């Protein structure tokens, strides 16, 4: 999970590990310069720069801008080992989407196993092509299921990951409590439900945030040309805490992809989440939030907290312990 800098508002699905960079929305990031001819021994020859590919696949752009599955898994392993004094081995990824986290998990250790659950088959198929097919026999360590996360049981697991705020889709207390109750039933004794959450003063307003994405790579390792990621809070209802958000992208050639992703959510608060976890039968409901560096950027270290002063934007992990 990436972490926001202090001036940031809230990110969409995974928080920013680096400071949010703001851009004027009228500007393009296209930076292809004109090539000058080069003088040869007997003739003038114009060298042409190889054109950079225009990546319009929204899943590739999303993964490059939002997800840091290695950081999420590192956090899960650390918290699980600290409590149980043994390594985490069997996990389930709810709302897995392209199942990037699941694929990364089974790649990290020969004893790691995973189940990924999502109700959108085309998105799962994309993940199979891009993340699992290249793994060869390693992919046999995972099972992907197309179904409602509240309907899948299967063998009990050590931990369930419900990241990228996907559980925000449950807008009523009963619905979220029922999900928590079902997730608890799918855990082994002492198992853990890991979620991320965002908040802060800027999370409850309409706003736009822009971030320059450079250095991101496709699943096959190909570098993605620099692009702009835009997170929009289109609407927030203070009575219901319902929030409507969009992700837009601007590519290096000036192409804009409007509403690549849309989220119609309820912005759940940390006290609500903790209360519902306990009501669903979890023995503990823990909150881990990052600290701040002197320059105002997040320190990327998530610590167990009992109290925390509000900021413009923050990211938390919420952990339910069975």
Summarize the structure in words:
This protein is 21% helix and 32% strand. The chain is of the alpha/beta class and 322 residues long. The chain has a domain at 62-199 and 269-321: Rossmann fold (3-Layer(aba) Sandwich). The strands form three sheets. The chain has an eight-stranded mixed sheet, sandwiched between helices. Strands 8-9-10-11 form a four-stranded antiparallel sheet, covered by helices on one side. The protein is globular, with a radius of gyration of 21 Å.
Highlighted features:
single chain, 322 residues, alpha/beta, Rossmann fold, 6 helices, disordered N terminus
Q: Globular, elongated, flat, extended or rod-shaped: what is the shape?
A: globular
Report the strand count.
Answer: 14
CATH topology of the domain at 62-199 and 269-321: Rossmann fold
CATH class of the domain at 62-199 and 269-321: Alpha Beta
- How many whole angstroms does the radius of gyration measure? 21 Å
Question: Helix amount, in percent?
Answer: 10-25%
Q: Ends: how far apart? A: 23 Å
SSE series:
EEHHEHEHEEHEEEEEHEEE
CATH superfamily caption of the domain at 62-199 and 269-321: Vaccinia Virus protein VP39
* Unreliable sequence segments: 2-48
| SS class | alpha/beta
Strand content is 25-35%
State mean pLDDT (0 to 100 scale): 86
**Strand sequence of the main sheet, in spatial order?**
5-4-3-6-7-14-12-13
The major sheet is characterized as: 8 strands, mixed
Q: Helix count? A: 6
Name of the CATH architecture of the domain at 62-199 and 269-321: 3-Layer(aba) Sandwich
